[in-house]
Design brief:
single chain, 17 strands, 17-stranded mixed β-sheet, alpha+beta, Diaminopimelate Epimerase, Chain A, domain 1, 352 residues
Length: 352
Amino acid sequence: MTQLTQLPFTMMRGGTSRGPYFLASDLPEDREELAKILEKVMGSGHELQIEGIGGGNSLTSKVAIVGRSSAPDADVDYLFAQVGITEKKVDFSPNCGNILSGVGPFSLEKGLVTASGDKTTIRIRNLNTNKIIHATIETPNGQVNYNGETYISGVNSPAAPIELSFLDVEGAKTGKLFPTGNVQDKVADYHMTCIDAAIPVMIVDAAQFGKTGHEKPAELDADIEFTHKLEALRRQAGEMMGLGDVSDKVIPKPILVSKPATDRGTINARYYVPRTCHKAIAVTGSIALTMSLCHPGTVSYDLLQQNTELVNCCIEHPSGFIDLKVARKSGKVSSVSLVRTAKKILEGILLL
C-alpha cells in the first residue's frame, strides 16, 4: 500500500455539497487502496468525522478526484466518491452532479485545462458512469471567476453561474433507461418507476405511503416505519434493475413525488440518499426525475397527467427549486442542462 503522509487538496463547495478535490496523480489508482486513504482523510468511523475533514453529513462527506483524460471526447476525468460517516466504507458507484460543479474550476486552477476567452467549456468524463458532461465556466482574463449574482436553492450566497449539460444520460449504470423493461412496475401494493438517467432511481407517489410529499426532511426521517418500508422497496427495486443486493449501496435512490405547491413548479420531490431525506435534491436525481416526465406511463408522468412535450422542468424540493432544460435531437432527449455555482474555500496540505 502506498504510504502517503501529506496530500495536497482544495476544499470547495460544489452546488449544494462540499468536499475536498484532489489531483488523480496524487493518489493511487487501486480502488481498495484509495478507499482506505479517503476514509482516513474524511474521518470515517465517527459521527462527527472528528479526525478528518468530513462534515458529519452525507452532503459534506464527498470527494472529487480529477485528472487529464485520455478519451477523445473529454478534457478531464472525474471520479466521485461518497465516503461513509459512521461506517468505514466508500462508494464509487454513483456520480454527484453537485460536486461536479467544482470540477471545471478546479481543472482550470490546476492547469489541467487552459482557459479560452471569457467563458471556457470543459468536457468532463465521469468515471463512475462513463458519461460526458460539458461544464461552462466564466474565465475573464483567463482566470476562474467565482463571484456573481446567481442564487441556487440551498446555498446562502450568490456566485458566478456554471452551466452543466449532461449528454446521453440514459443507462448511466445499467445501460438501460428503464432497466426492468417497464415504465412502471408494481411491487405488493406500490407502483413505482425504476429509471436510470444520470443515476438509477426509484420514483414513487408520496400518497401511496399516506404522505403529502411536502413534509420536511426531518419529519420524514422521524417516521421509522415509513423509512423501513421505503428501504425494503428500494432493495427490491435494486434487484429488479439488475443492481443485485443494494443493501450496502447508495443506488438506486428513492424519490417521493407529488404535485407542486406553486405555479412555478412542475413537480414536487423528496429525494433520498438513500435512507435519509436530502435537504434539497441531487443534480443527478433531478435529471432522472426530469427524464421520467418525458416518458408517458411513468409514475411522475401519470401524476401530472400532462400531454405537452417537456422542455423546461422546475422541481420543488425542501430548500426551494431547481430548474432544468431538456434538449432533443430527432425526437430523442440529447441532453439535460442546468445551472449550478461553486466556491473555492481553501487550499492546503492534509497530514495523514
